[in-house]
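[retry 2/3] Heavy-metal-associated domain-containing protein: previous attempt timed out, resubmitting with same input.
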Amino acid sequence: MVAFRIPNMRCGGCARSVTAALRGVAPASEIRVDMERHEVTVEGGADADALAFALRQAGFKGERLAA
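[retry 2/3] Heavy-metal-associated domain-containing protein: success.
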């Protein structure tokens, strides 16, 4: 599991954009968004660096959380 805190994820549109960016890297992974905590988790063995890069490309600064 890889988890990120995304401070600038503030609305449903942001959550959809984050999910789409992560799904582009890890299409078979389970992606869960917690809007209250501004966090997203990805389960399924995806590469953390590739996920972080996808978030940056989509305009979101993701801080990786300890697993």
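[retry 2/3] Heavy-metal-associated domain-containing protein: Residues 2-65 form a domain with the Alpha-Beta Plaits fold (CATH 3.30.70.100).
[retry 2/3] clearing retry counter.
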